[in-house]
Specification:
Blueprint (H helix, E strand, L loop, with lengths): L1 H23 L6 H8 L3 H7 L3 H22 L6 H17 L7 H7 L1 H28 L7 H25 L8 H12 L8 H13 L5
Helix pairs in contact: 1-2, 1-4, 4-5, 4-7, 5-9, 6-7, 7-8, 8-9
Length: 217
């Protein structure tokens, strides 16, 4: 019974931290804020987590697993409309964990454990799945690209996606990330595909791009 209570509290701390980090920013949320929000003592929180960075590592693990689950199960697109929906799924997960992307480099520098997990996630897990996505697009005749191009494009797409929320909020002059940033991010990520699109897919992209690029908050 004691272990069950501990497990529930552990999960509640992670859930509450995500909510508070997203709403108020990770920098503005202390472990005392989290404990107060949950109605528990700081000592109870420290029984489960030695510091805030340990909570963030757990939230990154949740986020990365959600992304991998999505990339492994989502239907791969064979046209631009499907590519929009595919990227929308990625951005929805990032929105759920958006605090991670408001100042990602600061978090990575602060925690060597988080940095290691982040680099492994990017290099060995996400990049191969994005190459698989581009290979599917190539096989369907949607894009024309060589092997080196696929490797480079996969990294560039992930790089843009990872830093998009931070960039967009600064360009809009806002401290917080907004829902509209997701649609602008989808558009900007997919623009990387346009030079490789073939035939009818170019016109389809341009038609859809007009709608995506005119999103306002």
């Amino acid at each position: 019974m004691k272990e069950q209570r501990r497990t529930n509290t552990y999960i509640r701390i992670i859930d509450a931290s995500l909510q508070l980090f997203n709403e108020h920013g990770e920098r503005n949320t202390s472990t005392n804020h989290i404990a107060t929000h949950l109605g528990i003592s700081p000592g109870n929180l420290y029984y489960h987590f030695a510091n805030k960075d340990e909570i963030i590592v757990q939230l990154f693990q949740r986020y990365s697993q959600a992304v991998l689950d999505y990339l492994n199960t989502a239907s791969l697109p064979v046209n631009v409309a499907q590519a929009v929906e595919y990227m929308k799924g990625v951005y929805e997960i990032m929105w759920e964990y958006r605090f991670l992307f408001s100042d990602v480099n600061t978090l990575l520098v602060r925690s060597s454990e988080l940095l290691g997990q982040h680099n492994d996630f990017t290099r060995t897990r996400v990049s191969p799945l994005l190459v698989k996505l581009l290979t599917q697009m190539q096989d369907s005749g949607m894009i024309a690209i060589d092997e080196r191009g696929k490797q480079d494009l996969a990294i560039n797409m992930w790089l843009l996606t990872k830093y998009w929320f931070d960039f967009d909020s600064s360009m809009q002059g806002r401290a917080k990330i907004t829902h509209a940033a997701k649609k602008r991010g989808i558009y900007q990520t997919l623009t990387l595909l346009r030079p490789y699109l073939q035939g009818k897919h170019v016109a389809e992209f341009d038609e859809i791009a007009v709608k995506l690029s005119r999103i306002a908050d």
